[in-house]
Amino acid sequence: MRFLTIKRRKSFVASLGAGHAYIQCDEANSELEICGYHCKKLGDLKNGGTLTCEIGEEKTRVFVIYDKASKDWCNDMYVIEAGSEDVHLSGVAKWGAGNPFRFDNNPSEEAKALRKKNGRKGSVVMILAFVVGFLLGFFLIPALL
């Protein structure tokens, strides 16, 4: 067994919300499915906080999300290779659609592809929210006056 430590750097972006760290697991122990991977919760990451937990030595994926509603488009993934050394990760919430958490020094092509896909999904969600809000305001407010 080895230890995983995730440090969330302090940032004004999403400062009031806690990030939730999940790790890939088998289907039997799964609490949540994120981007097609069965995951179980490791803990919460408050702004400026640190989370340390014990993980296995096999290759796995770690996700940070903010809520279950946006788990498939507002997340970041870090692929941890197999080994016995302790793993230290850090990251920060970035401004954007949903203010997603982003791991530092994340060289995985799989993570880069997921970020690109999530960026498109996030943009679509934000545009739809804007259009629906505009239409409701445009048609509903005059009807109430």
Please, could you describe this protein's structure?
- Helices cover 25% and strands 37% of the residues.
- The chain has 145 residues and is of the alpha+beta class.
- It has a five-stranded antiparallel β-sheet, with helices on one face. A four-stranded mixed β-sheet has the order 5-1-8-9, with no helix packed on it.
- The chain is elongated, with a radius of gyration of 18 Å.
Task: Record keyword descriptors for this entry.
145 residues, alpha+beta, five-stranded antiparallel sheet, four-stranded mixed sheet, 1 helix, 9 strands, 25% helix, elongated
Describe the structure concisely:
With 145 residues, the protein is an alpha+beta fold.
Characterize the main sheet.
5 strands, antiparallel
Q: Overall mean pLDDT score?
A: 88
Distance between the termini: 65 Å
How much is the radius of gyration in Å?
Answer: 18 Å
Q: Please work out how many helical segments DSSP would assign.
A: 1
Low-confidence region ranges: none
> How does the overall form come out from the CA principal axes?
elongated
